[in-house]
Predict the structure.
Amino acid sequence: MAQASAQKVEKNEAGEVAIQLLGVNKWYGEFHVLRDINLSVDRGERIVICGPSGSGKSTLIRCINRLEEHQSGQIIVDGNELTNDLKRIDEVRREVGMVFQHFNLFPHLTVLENCTLAPIWVRKMSKADAEAAAMKYLTRVKIPEQAKKYPGQLSGGQQQRVAIARSLCMNPKIMLFDEPTSALDPEMIKEVLEVMVDLAQSGMTMLCVTHEMGFARQVANRVIFMDQGQIIEQNSPVEFFNNPKSERTKLFLSQILH
Amino acid sequence: MTDVPSPQGWVRTEDAPRLPAPPNTTGPVGWMLTNLFSSPMNSVLTILGASFVIWIAWGVIDWALIRGVFTGEDREACVAVPDSGACWPYVWAKFHQFVYGFYPFDQRWRVNICFIVGAVALATMAMPSLPYKKWNALFLLVVYPLMTFVLLTGGNLNLSSSTIYFVTGVLLFSSLVVPLAAFGIEDGIRRNKPALVLAGIAVAIWLVSIFVSMPEIAAFGGYISIATLASLVLLTAAAFFSIGHRASTRDIAARSALLGWVGAVSAIIAVLVLVTADFGLVQVETQQWGGLLVTLVVAVTGIVAALPLGILLALGRRSKMVVVRLFSIVFIEVWRGVPLITVLFMASIMLPLFMPEGVNFDKLLRALVGTALFSAAYMAETVRGGLQAIPRGQYEAAQALGLSYWRMMNLIVLPQALKIVIPGIVNAFISLFKDTTLVLIIGLFDLLGIINASFSDPKWVSPQTGTTGYFVAALMFWVFCFAMSRYSLFMERRLATGHKRRGI
Ligand SMILES: Nc1ncnc2c1ncn2[C@@H]1O[C@H](COP(=O)(O)OP(=O)(O)OP(=O)(O)O)[C@@H](O)[C@H]1O
Ligand SMILES: [Mg+2]
């Protein structure tokens, strides 16, 4: 089922490139965080990025919506190259949703207001339309009944699902996830992963930093392994897990899969 | 109770009854037992504290009410009674002066209108349950200041015609700059060519007129040089081109920039018309103002100006743009490093020395600007404290959603930051309110100043006049400050409901 719908989408938009990184380098002061990153992501593709702590995974996906600046190389997202041009950056951010490890919901706004804020102010939707859309996505992440509550009144898993709904309300073409489940208790991880699997099956282009290997096997088209700021290995999940090529990957997998 | 005994254990078949709370834990007695007399030490402290409060309160009541003198025509009433307390007839006689200073007697209705309208508008604004907050705020921040200005001074300002031409020119010219800002310079120039050409000619003519004297013609009830007239006409044409073009655009950002500009221009023109119009009111010089009127004018202006300026300075200090940051830091540190007395002194004595001959700002206006900028610098640091408490994740989430800098600040960061620093903000307001008494040193008579001045009236000299006067001053200041303090507590509690963060 999952496979079937995913293939359909791939056929529809095959070949179209959603994100392209060419020779990207980034430094924090003297520290070389990203080293010569080359990556091309097609529309509808679902990529899982993994690697040891401090390897630059967060930095990489934060460069894609310009939360971090890169110093050399090119990043082209949805046809817009990211430079200092603020208009381009705004355009990219409108089309790219992001979900954070610590949810980052706005605590002074209700769940519904969290979801309608950007559609109203950035997409210029009417309040009624924005609320209707928000309720649609809240229903999709299975918490429509929490709409009037404040984030502080929800469990971690519920908060993360609201964060996903909030991003979806902008109707993004690409979704970035930075360890969306690693701040959650085990029983909550499942409910968030279910939502992400559902999203993957709908054909969303996804870039996901996670150590949930079950999720990677189930939905990823490609798994990318990073270490010390470089992409060491990328492959289909089956090949990646069953037949890792580099020593570092083997070591990492042995640690993470016990 | 019918617990069913069984070999393995038992099952409760009925609910246990609800028992009343143990005696002496609820009600007033219970409250006192838990809060005031919970331990021997606590009981001793309670009794000591209570005795002290009663002692002070008794002293005040004895002085003000029991031994106080309530009726009389002049000082004789208070001097005649041996060992008398407060001299109230003096307060009755002088009270109007405490409130209005030397504002002409038959014009005091104007002050009253300002007081009453201000109090009502503020009260409706302060009550969260009442609707139309936007309009109320608009009234308080725009209409009300204008209204008070016209009512209190009499309006009918004499602006020189060159001032008016200058303002008009600036407004028209800004109509060209705004589209450039909205579209970015390149795009703005490309789409704005005819307007820019016309504006260029206008500026050229104006520049030439500086060096070559042009004939003047009678217009607008005065004389205007042909060059000025020509450049104004050209600028108007340019503005029409530019606006007309923008109005047809479908770009929402550009349209809102344009709307903002039209709004600002209409507001400035409306203000000019209002303050120069003749409403038939007698002019009242600010030298005649005094008492509570001056205290409130200085404090309210300072408070109203300090918050927005302080927010801008705080944002500026955290800005990534070096020039903006540097300006904010220098501004804040300079004003914070100087005592308010010095600021006022400079404003009243030094500033006129630097002004060209004939330019003369009103003394009260100078004090207003001085206190407003001074308190803005303090407010900036208070607000910055709040900004620093907002986690980086909030900024990142807002940016990731595509919110622009100002939207992010307005919708996400400031609402949270300001809520955190409400106590600090109100603290600054209260201290500003009391600092207004310093205007005394530049010869303005605020509430305290006018009470002080009234001591020298020979008609009311008595041993108790001073004490009574200061008592009234303290009481009036306290009422205002205490009201602010209570309101801030109320708002804190109200804003805190519902979204307390759990441990995340
Ligand atoms: N703002 C910063 N300034 C300086 N160094 C930074 C900054 N942010 C991250 N780093 C460093 O860059 C490196 C990569 O960080 P990054 O957060 O991308 O790692 P990560 O792969 O996401 O790790 P984790 O799995 O722990 O989240 C780390 O060594 C980190 O210490
Ligand atoms: Mg990370």
